[in-house]
Write a structure and sequence with these properties.
- The complex is a heterodimer.
- Chain A is mainly alpha-helical.
- Chain A has 5 helices and 2 strands; from the N terminus they run H-H-H-E-E-H-H.
- Chain A has helices at 6-29, 38-44, 47-61, 74-89, 92-110; strands spanning 62-63, 66-67.
- Chain A has a two-stranded antiparallel ribbon.
- In chain A, a hairpin with a 2-residue loop joins strand 1 (62-63) and strand 2.
- Chain A is extended, with a radius of gyration of 20 Å.
- In chain B, 66% of the residues lie in helices and 0% in strands.
- Chain B contains 11 helices and no strands.
- Chain B starts with 10 loop residues before the first helix and ends in a 21-residue tail after the last helix.
- Classes of the chains: A mainly alpha, B mainly alpha.
- Chains A and B meet through helix 1, helix 2, helix 3, strand 2 and helix 4 of A and helix 1, helix 2, helix 3, helix 4 and helix 5 of B.
Chain lengths: 111, 255
């Protein structure tokens, strides 16, 4: 798909939008009598954690396209500090402030 | 029911205001996220109009950024759409968790509340709904948080499009995005049951980061969910006792 082909991109946006709305409304709109099969619930409850972790982990453990557990990665340390704050305080604001502050301090100190 | 302290403030408006106040601190982190949602797609070849429209048509930041990334790399249209839907699949759980609270509402409310569903609207609402002093006007509380998020998102996207390449790369604005999701992940892991799923999902996503089309993200999500659900079936130290799944008497077929 070329970005020059605007119609295709609009089609992608609309398709993603409709599909996402269907996901969002899936349980809210379904009539009460249908219910959720227990096996589906068993897997569904893990979706937010699995997806959020899959979204987040590469930001802290990947450098230049490769997994990097080495301590030389400032984003790893900034993420660690932010994770401690997130776990202890549950404050989104605190997590972001500490994470960004740590990253800036590390980048300017060693960059 | 508490006596109204402010004459003239309807309970619905008060609930709306409470929801808006609850999401307020999170909105500070949503702003850089929205800026990136305005900057990245344009860099990847979207028009300004498409970029702004995406924030209301799709209205899902993580998916929007993944889509922008894929389009920039020339991925096929169907890959972009499927990836967006996989990234947004977590909203199905949010929908399932919120549905009981909106059961008595009319169809138009349900459509509106569904459209506005995001990580942030879910997070502030579900905490309040499960709390001790929940308002009788739950949907107004949710609406307050959700509208606050929606408005901030649209505004930040527009500003991001206008700023464009003007934002210095040294600010590392993009780092605010995983930080915000990290805060939400910590909330999701509070009950500890889903920790294995998160560890597996994160590990696989990192290991598979070299795969094209964000397949590492999809692989991580699938492995995490499979592991989490599988462990629940076997019974793990993380699992809370579930009365619905007590051993059935002999002769009864288990589900």
């Amino acid at each position: 798909m070329t970005t020059g082909n605007s119609i295709t991109l609009w089609g992608v946006l609309v398709a993603a939008g409709i599909g996402t709305f269907l996901i969002r409304s899936s349980f809210i709109i379904v009539p009460e009598r249908w219910g959720t099969p227990p096996w589906l619930e068993r897997y569904l409850r893990h979706v937010p954690s699995a997806v959020l972790a899959a979204l987040v982990a590469p930001a802290f453990f990947v450098v230049a396209g490769h997994p990097a557990l080495a301590p030389a990665n400032p984003r790893f340390w900034a993420g660690l500090a932010a994770a401690v704050v997130a776990w202890r305080t549950g404050s989104a604001l605190g997590t972001m402030a500490v994470g960004m502050g740590a990253l800036w301090a590390l980048q300017w100190g060693f960059g | 029911m508490e006596p109204q302290r402010h004459l003239g403030t309807s309970p619905r408006r008060a609930a709306f205001g409470a929801g808006l106040a609850a999401v307020g601190p999170i909105l500070v982190g949503v702003v850089p996220f929205g800026l990136v949602a305005g900057i990245a797609p344009v860099k990847a070849g979207f028009t300004a109009l498409q970029t702004v429209a995406m924030s209301s048509i799709v209205f899902a930041g993580a998916a929007q950024l993944a889509m922008a990334d894929l389009v920039g790399k020339g991925a096929p249209a169907w890959v972009v759409v499927i990836t967006a839907l996989v990234v947004n699949l977590r909203m199905m759980m949010y929908s399932a968790s919120l549905a009981p609270h909106f059961r008595s509402l009319g169809a138009r409310w349900k459509v509106l509340l569904s459209y506005l569903l995001t990580d942030q609207a879910f997070a502030v609402s579900i905490v309040h709904f499960n709390g001790a002093r929940v308002t009788p006007h739950k949907h107004w509380y949710y609406l307050g948080g959700a509208v606050g998020l929606w408005g901030t998102w649209q505004g930040a996207t527009v500003v991001g499009v206008m700023l464009g390449a003007g934002v210095p790369a040294g600010w590392h604005l993009d780092f605010a995005v995983p930080l915000m999701f990290l805060a939400l992940l910590a909330k999701a892991l509070k009950d500890r049951v889903t920790i294995p799923a998160a560890v597996a999902g994160g590990a696989v996503a990192v290991a598979a980061v070299g795969l094209p089309h964000h397949l590492g993200l999809i692989a991580g999500a699938l492995v995490g969910v499979a592991l989490g659900g599988g462990l629940d079936r076997l019974g793990t130290p993380f699992r809370e006792p579930d009365p619905k799944e007590a051993t059935p008497p002999p002769g009864k077929v288990p589900k």
